[in-house]
């Protein structure tokens, strides 16, 4: 038995010494091809996954038995034309360059149905819709008169009047509306025979909350903003200072913060940039103040003579500064990303990606940067422009996590699929009424819009809800697994 | 070599070396686990490469072990129907017996034919040697049952089994080594056992082990050593040479098969230089196997398998659990270490060092049955199993003592010392780290994958390769399931097909069990040793259901 043990030991040792490097080389994409000129060939792979899954794949017009999601392994470095087909969905095709030892990843390819079925939701004409990001409702207006404004709840698909039994305001027209992402509150600036009024509203399916706070405004402000976590404490900016208005107590705190060149809110804190460009952060009651930037050289080079900056902290460590002319500055290298023209932005927390858009183009900043060995000077996140040949981009949304971008350009809604390699897939979704807003709810994968011709409210399912729910469940499971692993450690 | 086999009463450099090697196993285990986790976080690609290389190593080692598990099982079943006493008697008349064997009609079946062939070779080797073995009629068996608080129903079946065996009871000396601190009920139970069995053996005695003897810890070995000394006095009195006494120190719940002492005696007689050898049977945990919960069953069958595999490697075999040895060697080395928990393996190392490496373990292909740990409730059973495995894993306490001895054992070749030291370390490190590495750490590179890693070929290839490795490993698991079903005793009550499938599926519990009830208690034991929080003996609660 001892001899047998020794014999087997050496046999297994030889197997290991031969198999282990071979397997590792194979895993890295090296293939043994004894008959070819190069006996050790470098290969690459393509990873494909679709929503919904189960689509057929053809490579260079040759159909395969493979279905998505799948990995096309052992591919020689070259360009491949990959086509993905599925009944009732449009074919997806892409020229993919396979490079040695690398994976070309095409994750969550969203298959577009051949026939889109827009759904008529309201058989009435509307002048515009006003989306409230992060809310399950939006506003619809038939005319500037406040009595013609209604609230549409997406969950229940029901329409409610914005004001109930508030005939005092029926005759007033809306001059301006202030909203904040993630907050249900809205402040109307109204015109009436008796003069200008400020009406704060929080829509509610049972009874909306109304507060006429006209008395608390001594002058018409240049900006209005509030912390979504404290919607009844609003801040008005005028002539370089901030007033705080406590709606619940109908109290005005004049010159709450003076010497202001910019302000914003995040996580129950107020961020303010002073006129000498010192950035501070404090609780809403001005407690626990912290100085975040007090470097004259940096702050002057970034903020001097640029006017007002809207401060938009999007996470604990990322702060965006957007000037009135659309200059984008962040607290991450290289600090200044655009000199002007930014019309809006949207941040995807999970992957720390910022979507921004200008009139003609869309940009992405990836803050999930990794330290790459061999680079002496930190480069910081880069702004990558996506060439969408835009004419007048007004709105943009992350869709299906951050794998797609949905945007409105003039009278057309588009969907871009962001590819890891190669140009993006651009798909014209639907014609919409120009200069009228869209509303997209990621959780449901549904787009709400006013029809191009009829101006009636329609919805369009961009993403099948079923795979989204399955994915959500999988993500939750993955998160739980992660937590478990962390706990076990 | 004269060596102080204890961690106590050390001074200066000796103490420092001892402490260093106490820290080493735990330090290595934690370093591997934490290091690989950090490595996965810092450089997931490189960590994934290491993990794939490790997975392949593990797979080959699994196959390697499977081969020897199967061969060992075959050997066990081959020797099942041997008349060991007849063979042992034959040794008394070697020349004529060898001729008888040569003239014997060949067996048709493979198993008895192979067994006969091996036996013939062993007799021939003995004939060629210069030693003349003692006669069967001169051999005595000393059987010690250390009892701390076990009840009569645990101990009695073991003593009954001695009477039911083929070895004559009139050459058996049975000692119940009873702790003075045992509960009154236990003491009463033991006196009833004495009343029942005292006349049935050559000699039967209960030796009460007093507490507080200087130099002793509260460990089983102290009790057994005290009892063995009393037995020594008896053998002196009866003028029975120590060379002719085989000593077996059994756990209180050990039940021997009818052939056990016949088989042991045969191996004792046939083994050259028998004084310098321990005899290791295959411990199985069959006494209450069908009453125990599935997880405990799988774990203990796994322990039996491990011993079956180890039996094929006598060069590196170390005694485990219940086993037997020459009483002369036991007296020579001054009995078991009285301050160590892991008396079963410590006695081998103590003898090995004492005899300058001229000591070995001879595997004997016969089973010896014990109880699977079981308690009143399922949860208590889990706790007891955890504590039992922690105690087993505390065998790592031998590492510092053995290493200290090896550093000055000039009479043992360096090669032997290195090989044995490596095996000792490897066994304890793989015990603590492998289950964690395979089940937890191997996922970390994917969880911590950087964008750079996500776009490498390896990110996509590694899970496929790992999946193939685990699929291949499941064939090894199938071998385990089949052998476990063959090895398990017949049930008193026949189970239906569904239940039997259920028993086979219990093996799927291996990943969580191997972490929670094998690697975790082992890591616990090594950590205690590393931190100097030394363990004392904890009596495994064993309970048999009606």
Which tags fit this structure?
heterodimer; A: 489 residues; mainly beta; Immunoglobulin-like; 8-stranded mixed β-sheet; 4-stranded antiparallel β-sheet; 41 strands; 12% helix; B: 546 residues; alpha/beta; 58% helix
Alpha-beta content class of chain A: mainly beta
Q: Roughly how many Å is the radius of gyration of chain A?
A: 28 Å
Q: Oligomer, anyone?
A: heterodimer
Largest sheet of chain A: 8 strands, mixed
Structural class of chain B: alpha/beta
Distance between termini of chain A?
A: 41 Å
Largest sheet of chain B: 8 strands, mixed
- Mean pLDDT across the residues of chain B is 89
Taking all residues together, what is the mean pLDDT of chain A? 88
Q: How widely separated are the two ends of chain B?
A: 50 Å
Question: How would you sum up the global shape of chain B?
Answer: globular
Q: Can you tell me the residue ranges of chain A where pLDDT is under 50 for at least 5 consecutive residues?
A: 481-489
Low-pLDDT regions of chain B: none
The SSE string of chain B, one letter per element, is HHHHHEHEHEHEEHEHEHHEHHHHHHHH
Helix proportion of chain A: 10-25%
Order of strands, main sheet of chain A, comes to 26-25-24-23-27-28-29-30
Task: Please tell me how large the radius of gyration of chain B is.
Answer: 24 Å
Tertiary shape of chain A: globular
Provide the spatial order of strands within the biggest beta sheet of chain B: 3-2-1-4-7-6-8-5
Topology, number of strands of chain A = 41
Proportion of residues in extended strands of chain A: over 45%
């Amino acid at each position: 038995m001892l001899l047998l043990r020794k014999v087997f030991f050496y046999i297994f040792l030889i197997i290991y010494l031969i198999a282990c490097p071979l397997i590792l080389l194979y895993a890295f994409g090296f293939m043994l091809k004894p008959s070819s000129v190069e006996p050790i060939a470098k290969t690459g792979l393509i990873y494909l996954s679709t929503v919904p899954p189960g689509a057929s794949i053809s490579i260079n017009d040759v159909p395969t038995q493979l279905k998505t999601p799948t990995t096309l392994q052992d591919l020689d470095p070259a360009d491949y034309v990959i086509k993905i087909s599925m009944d009732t969905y449009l074919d997806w095709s892409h020229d993919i360059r396979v490079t040695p030892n690398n994976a070309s990843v095409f994750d969550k390819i969203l298959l577009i149905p051949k026939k889109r079925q827009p759904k008529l939701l309201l058989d009435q004409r509307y002048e515009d819709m006003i989306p409230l990001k992060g809310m399950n409702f939006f506003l619809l207006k038939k005319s500037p008169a406040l009595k013609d404004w209604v609230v549409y709840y997406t969950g229940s698909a029901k329409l409610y009047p914005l004001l109930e039994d508030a005939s005092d305001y029926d005759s007033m027209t809306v001059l301006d509306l202030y909203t904040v992402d993630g907050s249900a509150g809205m402040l109307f600036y109204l015109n009436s025979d008796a003069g200008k009024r400020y009406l704060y509203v929080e829509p509610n399916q049972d009874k909306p909350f109304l507060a006429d706070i006209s008395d608390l405004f001594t002058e018409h402000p240049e900006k209005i903003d509030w912390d979504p976590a404290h919607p009844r404490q609003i801040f008005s900016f005028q002539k370089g200072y901030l007033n705080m208005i406590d709606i619940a107590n109908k109290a005005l705190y004049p010159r709450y913060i003076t010497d202001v060149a910019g302000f914003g809110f995040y996580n129950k804190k107020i961020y303010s940039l002073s006129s000498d460009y010192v950035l501070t952060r404090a609780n809403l009651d001005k407690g626990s103040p912290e100085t975040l930037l007090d470097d004259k050289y940096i702050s002057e080079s970034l903020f001097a003579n640029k006017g007002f900056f809207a401060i938009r902290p999007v996470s604990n460590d990322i702060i965006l500064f957007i000037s009135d002319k659309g200059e984008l500055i962040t607290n991450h290298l290289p600090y200044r990303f655009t000199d002007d023209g930014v019309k809006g932005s949207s941040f995807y927390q999970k992957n720390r990606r910022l979507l921004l858009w200008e009139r003609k183009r869309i940009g992405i900043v990836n803050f999930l940067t990794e330290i790459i060995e061999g680079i002496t000077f930190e480069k910081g996140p880069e702004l990558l422009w996506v060439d969408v040949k835009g004419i007048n981009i007004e709105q943009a949304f992350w869709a299906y996590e951050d794998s797609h971008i949905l945007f409105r350009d003039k009278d057309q809604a588009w969907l871009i699929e962001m590819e890891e390699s190669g140009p993006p897939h651009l798909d014209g979704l639907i014609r919409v009424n120009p200069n009228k807003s869209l509303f997209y709810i990621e959780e449901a994968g549904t787009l709400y819009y006013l029809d191009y011709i009829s101006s009636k409210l329609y919805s369009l399912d961009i993403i099948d809800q079923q795979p989204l729910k399955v994915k959500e469940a999988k993500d939750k499971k993955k998160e739980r697994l992660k937590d478990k692993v962390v706990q076990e450690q | 070599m004269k060596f102080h086999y204890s961690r106590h009463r050390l001074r200066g450099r000796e103490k420092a070396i001892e402490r260093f090697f106490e820290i080493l196993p735990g330090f290595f285990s934690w370093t591997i686990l934490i290091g690989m986790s950090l490595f996965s976080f810092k450089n997931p690609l490189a960590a994934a490469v290491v993990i794939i290389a490790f997975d392949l190593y593990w797979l080959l080692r699994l196959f390697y072990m499977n081969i020897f598990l199967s061969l060992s099982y075959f050997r066990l079943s081959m020797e099942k129907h041997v008349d060991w006493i007849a063979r042992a008697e034959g040794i008394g008349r070697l020349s004529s017996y060898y001729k008888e064997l040569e003239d014997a009609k060949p067996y048709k079946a493979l198993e008895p034919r192979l067994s006969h062939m091996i036996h013939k070779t062993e007799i021939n080797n003995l004939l060629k040697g210069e030693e003349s073995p003692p006669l069967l009629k001169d051999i005595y068996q000393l059987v010690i049952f250390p009892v701390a608080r076990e009840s009569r129903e645990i101990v009695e079946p073991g003593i009954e089994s001695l009477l039911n065996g083929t070895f004559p009871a009139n050459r058996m000396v049975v000692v119940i080594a009873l702790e003075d601190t045992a509960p009154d009920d236990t003491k009463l139970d033991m006196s009833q056992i004495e009343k029942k069995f005292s006349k049935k053996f050559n000699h039967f005695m209960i030796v009460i082990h007093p507490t507080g003897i200087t130099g002793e810890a509260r460990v089983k070995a102290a009790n057994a050593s005290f009892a063995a000394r009393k037995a020594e006095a008896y053998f002196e009195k009866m003028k029975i040479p120590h060379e002719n006494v085989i000593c077996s120190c059994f756990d209180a719940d050990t039940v021997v098969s009818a052939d056990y002492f016949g088989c042991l005696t045969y191996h004792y007689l046939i083994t050259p230089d028998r004084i310098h050898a321990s005899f290791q049977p295959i411990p199985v945990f069959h006494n209450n196997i069908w009453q125990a919960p599935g997880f405990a069953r799988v774990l203990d069958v796994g322990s039996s398998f491990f011993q079956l595999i180890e039996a094929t490697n006598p060069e590196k075999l170390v005694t485990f659990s219940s086993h037997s040895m020459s009483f002369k060697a036991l007296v020579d080395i001054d009995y078991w270490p009285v301050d160590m928990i892991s008396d079963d393996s410590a006695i081998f190392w103590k003898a090995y060092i004492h005899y300058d490496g001229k000591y070995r373990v001879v595997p004997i292909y016969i089973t010896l049955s014990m109880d699977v740990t079981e308690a009143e409730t399922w949860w208590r059973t889990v706790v007891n199993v955890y504590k039992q495995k922690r105690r087993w894993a505390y065998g790592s306490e031998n590492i510092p003592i053995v290493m200290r001895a090896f550093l000055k054992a000039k009479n043992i070749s360096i090669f032997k010392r290195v090989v044995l030291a490596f095996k000792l370390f490897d066994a304890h490190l793989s015990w603590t780290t492998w289950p964690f590495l395979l089940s937890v750490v191997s996922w970390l590179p994917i969880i911590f994958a950087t964008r750079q890693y996500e776009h490498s070929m390896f990110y996509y290839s590694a899970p496929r390769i790992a999946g193939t490795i685990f699929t291949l490993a499941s064939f090894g698991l199938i071998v385990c399931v089949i052998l476990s079903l063959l090895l398990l005793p017949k049930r008193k009550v026949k189970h239906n097909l569904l239940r039997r499938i259920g028993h086979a599926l219990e093996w799927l519990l291996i990943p969580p069990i191997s972490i929670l009830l094998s690697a975790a208690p082992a890591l616990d034991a090594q950590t205690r040793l590393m931190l100097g929080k030394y363990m004392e003996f904890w009596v495994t609660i064993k309970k048999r259901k009606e």
